Amino acid sequence: MPEVKRRYDSSARRARAEQVSETVLNTAHQLLLRDGYAATTIPRLAEACGVSPESVYKRFAGKPALVRAVVSRALRGAGPVPAESRSDALPTEDLASLLRGWARLTSEVAPRVAPILLLVHTASAHDGELAELDRELDDNRRARMAANAHRLAEAGHLPPALSVEHAGDVLWTYSSPQLYDLLVLRAGWQLDQYANFIADGLAAHLTA
How far apart, in Å, are the Cα atoms of 43 and each of 53, 62, 73? Predict the structure, then answer.
């Protein structure tokens, strides 16, 4: 019986810890978009979550680490399976279907992650540590798009005159938070229009 109780206590503690982490990330996302990076301090975040600053620091070493976690969570998209895993699972046989699948996932993830990436990019002009994070996040996205370009090449979808590097640059551009900002946030496009624009644009640039 004591062993069963210990297992129960351990499971309950883990569940509470995960719930606190989720609350911190949700609240951090909201505060960052509402108040900006500079105003979203760890003490203010802790107060909004009803926990101590030490509890936040125990999970995230500082604000850059917190923002990194917020971005990582946003990139998962909707549902239990991360968007990246769903992207990797898309069949590569039919190019049009693959590009539509990537465009659909981009339109799902962008509303969650693009505003945070734009905020980081803007704030990075006045914060060296944040500038490093901005470069890291952009490099990660570029590496991901390069991997997708290699998938296209391995499936035989790239024209002979189009290099894998160029295809990666095209994918990197169409997945950029700046494109989401221009078309959805500023021009007021609907997400299905945005997804169709991405699919059509990728098809135009990545086919012969």
Answer: 5, 11, 22
Per residue in 47-85, pLDDT (tens digit) is 999 999 999 999 999 999 999 999 999 999 998 999 999
Whether the predicted pLDDT of 2 surpasses 60: no
Same-domain check for residues 146 and 206: yes
Question: Domain containing 137: what range?
Answer: 81-208
- Which residues are CB-contacts of 25 (< 8 A; sequence separation ≥ 6)? 66, 69, 70, 73
Choosing from 46, 74, 102, the residue where a domain stops is 74
Q: Give the least confident one: 11-25, 40-54, 119-133.
A: 11-25
The two structure tokens encoding residue 173: 């551009």
| Backbone dihedral angles phi then psi of residue 156, each to the nearest 5 degrees | 80, 25
Judgement on whether residues 170 and 196 belong to the same structural domain of the protein: yes
Exposed e or buried b per residue across 9-18, where buried means at least 16 C-beta atoms within 10 angstroms of its C-beta:
eeeeeeeeee
